[in-house]
Write a structure and sequence with these properties.
Structural class: mainly beta
Strand order of the largest sheet: 10-11-15-17-19-21-23-25
Strand content: 25-35%
Number of helices: 2
Helix content: under 10%
Order of helices and strands: HEEEEEEEEEEEEEEEEEEEEEEEEEHEE
Length: 303
């Protein structure tokens, strides 16, 4: 009799397990009749605003349009630069941030790159030539140069425009063509991106800063003498577009790695390519070949 009871109890356990299994809910499975979100996008994907200026609006587009749950969450990567609420962006201070929207259903996300420029009122601007000629240091130590001033495109940064202005960072917009003599000298800038629109970096343009990273755009033709004199660079890439590098352009930088294009005319002064001298001799004797050169055991060697 007890054997039959044991078999019966075991049978009940099996039925219970089958019942629980059939009632289990698979995570993230949509409720019958609901249409799940498949993706999200934003319009626009980039935006330029002015610090303390007008707000901007980003619109989310959820796919499919008939999705049941269209709830989203907005966030800013840098709330000191800009904040966001329901897609409305409030610019606060110069910088770059990414505004992200994330769906409640599926955690899909998309972002908009927002550049917040320094207010135009801090720049002196020649609208006839598209040239910034001066900067009021009351505009702050972190500068984002606006792509336009009074609806006129910024094309040039003049001689001495932002020299000795206590600047610790600068973002130069694409569209600027030339950087003048001593334009940013005697500041504390530690990293720099030269946009692809720039063709000329003037004499002493960035001398006496604290640069440890520089990206030179692919349209630069001339790097003027003393352009990056006395910084903290240890490596540099000189693009194929460059034709000439002026005297002492990289002097008083401890360069140990140089990537350079073909047939670039380097000034004869020994320190032109940094404190570790001898680069020009190796580059020229090898036929001015493009490549990466390293300073090893007091000698420049091409990879």
């Amino acid at each position: 009799m007890s054997k039959k009871i044991n078999i019966f109890v075991a049978f009940l356990f099996i039925l219970e397990a089958l019942f629980i299994s059939s009632c289990s809910i698979i995570p993230n499975e949509p409720t019958p009749g609901e249409i799940p979100v498949s993706s999200v996008a934003v319009i626009p994907t980039s935006m330029a605003l002015e610090a303390e200026g007008e707000t901007g609006t980003v619109i989310e587009v959820i796919h499919p349009l008939q999705a049941t749950n269209k709830k989203v969450t907005w966030s800013s990567d840098d709330v000191n630069t800009a904040t966001v609420s329901e897609g409305v962006i409030t610019p606060l201070s110069p910088g770059i941030t990414f505004i992200t929207v994330k769906t409640d259903d599926g955690n899909y996300s998309a972002n908009c790159a927002v550049t917040v420029s320094t207010p135009e009122r801090y720049f002196t601007f020649d609208s006839k030539t598209g040239t910034i000629t001066d900067f009021n240091y009351a505009g702050g130590v972190d500068i984002v140069i606006p792509p336009e001033v009074d609806s006129v495109s910024v094309k040039h940064i003049s001689d001495l425009a932002i020299t000795d202005s206590f600047v610790s960072s600068v973002i130069i917009p694409d569209g600027v063509i030339t950087i003048g003599m001593h334009a940013f000298s005697f500041n504390s800038i530690n990293s720099l991106v030269i946009p692809d629109s720039i063709t000329i970096i003037g004499e002493s343009a960035f001398m006496y800063n604290e640069l440890n990273s520089v990206v030179i755009g692919n349209s630069v033709i001339t790097i003027g003498e003393y352009a990056f004199y006395d910084n903290q660079l240890t490596s540099i890439t000189v693009p194929e577009s460059v034709i000439s590098i002026g005297a002492s352009a990289f002097a008083f930088n401890q360069l140990t790695s140089i990537t350079i294009g073909n047939n670039i005319n380097i000034n004869n002064l020994p320190q032109t390519m940094g404190s570790n001298t001898g680069f020009k001799a190796v580059y020229d004797s090898g036929g001015r070949q493009a490549g990466t050169y390293h300073y090893i055991s007091e000698n420049w060697i091409k990879e």
